[in-house]
Amino acid sequence: MIRCYHCGTDNLDGSEYCDECGKKLSNSASQARANYVPPPPQLNSQVAPPPPPSFTMETITPKPATPYTPPPPPVRSQGPQTVIQAPPTSAGTGAQGSTAGLHGPTTSLRGGSNNPEAGKQAVNAPLAEAVSNSIRAKLIIQRGGKVGKEFPLTSHESMIGRWDADGGIFPDVDLDQDDSEAKVSRRHARIQFLNNQYLIEDMGSTNGTFINRGPRLLPGNKQPLNNGDEIIVGKTFLKFVLS
Fold first, then answer.
1. In a domain, 147, yes or no
2. Range of the domain at 22
3. What pLDDT was estimated at residue 7?
């Protein structure tokens, strides 16, 4: 190899110009390359570390497990037992009396289970009484429909209006068949029983609600009702009667 004196690039023997910089290679460089003696190799002055110590693993033999023995259950001391003796009964009546006392209620319970109609009557009786007691007032048509038709007020709140199944309106006092001109609104008025007093209010009807032919009620304003009051909704005249 011929080293270029200008850039230090090694070139093939016999080359006249450097492949890297293009300078002409001189014979002196070839002679210097031939006379070059590489330096002797350097000895490693470091001392090799000693080999790692070898450890001998001791074989550990596990100790056998000691079986668990549960403690004996505590001994319960038996206290004195109290013996309850039945009072003496007269001969011939003691056994019969106790038997009658045990079988008496059983016979009545079986009789009730075998007679469901009697149970229904016992349950329906207080319900019927409660419903009858709740009918405290009613409305009677005086004009504008079927005169004399009654509408009992059986709940604490009753709505006056006209039936509309599509709109989900099902009034307690349905005047749909008694209002041929549809002067009564679907939700016309409402009667409530609060604090032992009947009150009426208009629900934003089109033709208004009137009591005893007085001024038109404002929507949402409750008006007390008395026995015999006249209620006008649309062109239907109703009479309020307390039972």
1. yes
2. 2-34
3. 82
